[in-house]
């Protein structure tokens, strides 16, 4: 989190983390397509080969709250391929919240688990708090041979994390996922960073301001 009181500007860093090919970059593409033009900047895909992220992607989002505070959200993705462990750690530094994008396919269960263990390990390494705002998205709900809704519900109960189903290629569930994370991040800003006086809004109002002017939350179908 960066705060500039003179400029009345607050910058938050949110990181999309997960195994290779789970759909992290696709989430950012979909958010870019769903947000009104004034609310987002250019989606930067840094260093990719064959559509695989080698360094990170960055999507900036801009929010103006009623009280005149400018909130900038910087959405990053990490590269999921196993070899990029040290890059993931760098991207994770100073994060204010994490979306873990899991692949719903049964065959990817182990890859999800390994990536999640890696996330916990890296959070510790870069000294992020254990209680950092975090939500889990189960992406690719359109594919066959996926973990059932019931399994997802059980995972949510056991882990105590909010879980969001998604079909990121069609824009389904991506906004809901981000909204879920931002709700937690807002509470964290108020409770851990004592920013209520600066934010001057409550959580639900803040989320309204973030998503003002957004299109309907499903089936944009803009992606291959
Ligand atoms: N069927 C289906 N395919 C998806 C969905 N979301 C993403 N994909 C596809 O999965 C592949 C990988 O998506 P990316 O967004 O590049 O995955 P990533 O997590 O950024 O991958 P890395 O950068 O290598 O970590 C692409 O071919 C996407 O089109 C989905 O909801 N359903
Ligand atoms: Mg990627």
Word description of this protein:
The chain has 224 residues and is an alpha/beta fold. 34% of the residues lie in helices and 25% in strands. The protein has helices at residues 24-34, 85-92, 109-125, 149-159, 174-191, 196-199, 203-210; strands at residues 2-4, 9-17, 44-49, 52-64, 70-77, 97-103, 134-139, 162-165. Strands 1, 2, 3, 4, 5, 6, 7 and 8 form an eight-stranded mixed β-sheet that branches. A hairpin with a 4-residue loop joins β1 and β2. α2 packs across α3 (109-125). The protein binds guanosine-5'-triphosphate and magnesium ion (MG). Magnesium ion is lined by residues 24-25, 53, 77. Residues 18, 20-26, 51-53, 77, 79-81, 139-140, 142-143, 167-169 line the site of guanosine-5'-triphosphate.
Key terms:
eight-stranded mixed β-sheet, binds guanosine-5'-triphosphate, 8 strands, single chain, binds magnesium ion, alpha/beta, Rossmann fold
